[in-house]
Design brief:
The protein is an alpha+beta fold. The chain has 4 helices and 10 strands; from the N terminus they run αααβαβββββββββ. The chain is 20% helix and 43% strand. 16% of the residues are buried.
């Protein structure tokens, strides 16, 4: 190998293609090819866009999907002409310090009732609800999240009103 083909010789020759300080610090066999540079740049940008916002968020968001079923007491079932009973076999709870979204879901049907509101302790004050996949509408009511002695969720109960219609959801978490 002649001196003209080495990295030292290339740095000594002033050309527009001379390596930058960063490139000079990286051995030639470790540098990426021109065709791979756009892919590498996209990967770096994607990583920064995912990691940076997550690291800067002030409120810790938790999300949990819990299997179970919606079940109702007999007196409530008899009054179903006045109150719509939500059917479900799982619930998803997305929660941060002040807001929560409780999504009652039915397998193969998707969301049956998605309730949003302000949360304090284990109570949610409902501000909006999207029933059976429709657009969210203003709602008023409350939800309560119950826990077992070991801290795991045992149930979620909601009663809310949208327009002139009442909705009830009573979720019992699976013990398995």
């Amino acid at each position: 190998m002649t001196p003209a083909h080495t990295d030292e010789a290339r740095e000594a020759v002033p050309t527009s293609r001379a390596p930058t300080a960063v490139a000079a610090a990286v051995p030639a066999h470790r540098r990426c090819s021109r065709s791979a540079r756009p892919i590498l740049a996209a990967a770096v940008i994607a990583t920064i866009s995912v990691v940076l916002p997550a690291g800067l968020s002030a409120a810790a968001t938790t999300s949990a999907a819990i299997p179970g079923r919606c079940a109702y007491a007999e007196p409530l079932v008899r009054s179903r002409q006045q109150t719509v009973l939500v059917l479900c076999d799982s619930v998803t709870i997305d929660r941060d310090d002040t807001l929560a979204i409780i999504d009652f879901r039915q397998r193969s049907w998707g969301s049956k009732a998605r309730i949003t509101g302000e949360v304090a302790d284990d109570r949610l004050s409902t501000s909006s609800a999207a029933i059976a996949g429709r657009s969210p509408v203003a709602a008023s009511g409350t939800c309560r999240m119950d826990h077992r002695s070991d801290g795991r969720l045992s149930g979620v109960r909601c009663l809310l009103k949208t327009g002139s219609r009442w909705y009830a959801a009573s979720f019992i978490a699976s013990r398995l």
